[in-house]
Amino acid sequence: MVRTALVLLLTGLSASAFAGSFAGTSAGASSGGSSASSGSSSGDDKVVLQAREDAAGFVASDGRIRGARLEAALRHLRETQSAARDASDLALAQAILAR
Length: 99
Fold this sequence. Notes:
Structural class: mainly alpha
Keywords: Signal
Helix content: over 70%
InterPro entries: CHP02448
Distance between the termini: 21 Å
Order of helices and strands: HHHHH
Radius of gyration: 14 Å
Signal peptide: 1-19
Protein name: DUF2388 domain-containing protein
Largest sheet: none
Shape: globular
Oligomer: single chain
Region (Disordered): 25-45
Strand content: under 5%
């Protein structure tokens, strides 16, 4: 069940990252409406992407090293992704690294 949740989480994260990247590069700052709407999704993706280094330390230390960026990303994922709510911190950190 955790494996299924992790696959769903990775699929959801990949789709949102692609959408956020597409909106950020295609829409650019050509209009106020498009940059405002893409800013929120790219900001959310940024929280997770910035946690990669902390996630690597967490996984490598078998959960003993917890960085502030990882904590923020875990909180964000659990608030926005239903599949992440029941996943362990280690599973989510591994998913962050797999992105």
